[in-house]
Amino acid sequence: MKHALLIIAIAASLLMGACVVPAPPATTPQPPPGLTSEPATESPDDAESMTAGMDQAAWGAVLSQWVAPDSPQCDAPGGVLLVASPAGRYLKAAGVASLEDGRPVQATDHFQIGSNTKAFTVALALLLQEEGILSLDDPLSKWLPDLAARVPNGDQVTLRQLAGNTSGIWDYADPLMEPVIFANDQEGLAQSYRPEELVEYAIANGKPDFAPGEGWHYSSTNFILLGMVIEAATGQSLAELYQARIFDPLGMADTSYLEGSPEPGSIVDGYYKIPGGELANMTNWNATQGGAAGAIVSTAEDVARWAAGLLGGELFQEEATLAEMLDFRELTPGEGSLVFAGYGLGLISYGASGFHAIGHAGQTPGFQSIWFHVPEAQTTVVFLTNSGSCQAGVLPLTLAPETFGLEPAAEATASCANFDLPFPRPEPDYDAKRPRDLSPFADALAGLAT
To answer: Are 228 and 173 in contact (CB under 8 A)?
Structure first.
């Protein structure tokens, strides 16, 4: 799924004249005033909020552009947008939570946040490193010797390489899930997997993308393994650890680690536009297929609390720990496909034009989400949608600096000259991958080109 997403993002960024912004300096961003991990003061029946200093029209236009029947970049029936900045706060929901019953989305609704889970998993590992329980420089074989012996090059892989996507270990997620999604196979969607089974799937079906430490490639298998290491090192479950070490300390009362299919009504319904154009209901997806790489459920408010707590220094004991997460490896266009300018440890530096954007995105079969912080504007954005085929992950690339009260971006010139690959770029080697059916994205590409 993510390769189709990146193809659309390339088209979007090129049509907009955007070039990759270098990864930001490894300094701690300061969360904006009004963005804290303390619970919001709005009453439950007035969860949507807008403050006078915020440019409500601008952010309202963003929300209506993305959550609309004719949106070229997003087919989600509904979504929630939260923006926190020194000028104020914007929190609003749009659309419907279910196509079947038509109930409207509420700002307090729960969404799957997919690969945003990866940063939580890395944070757990770093908290354990602060306590001396493990080190990110430990070899995988120290904690999972039998499995490391079966993973190609597993005896050379470190935990840091897992957290930074530099292990070269093949990604199980697309090949496992895409055939099920495109066929609207509800039985396959609800299939439960143990983490070991996901890793064994990767071992049986793929081959290394490169030798450990010799490249970069996004792989959910890395984070499944890191989650297994965390459980082995602590003797506790990931659900217990997320709750005790992250959710509770940051006041994330509406966030949980899903260990199966959701209970009916516990989250909004999620959808995916399958080949043929139908928005198929994917709500019953079994989150064990995502595990430590993608199984957290949250709200816009709680994701904002996560951003504030993480970047505001509330989570770790030492500043150097956050600095490790923010130590971005600058990615070539071939690696980041103009979407990712850099990747740290579970965090993304986006290739936006005229500003830096630090955060992460997430996708499950029925949901796409993103959060990012713009240090220059001290602004954090959270966008949650209930469609896995919505292109929410490219939101930073579609926004102008003026949206954040910043100066307009200079014309794209010098930074483009630094690209070390020709355009069009050679097609990546997908020999080890299943063929991608990109037909669901034709409308989005056509819309972006108009």
So the answer is: no
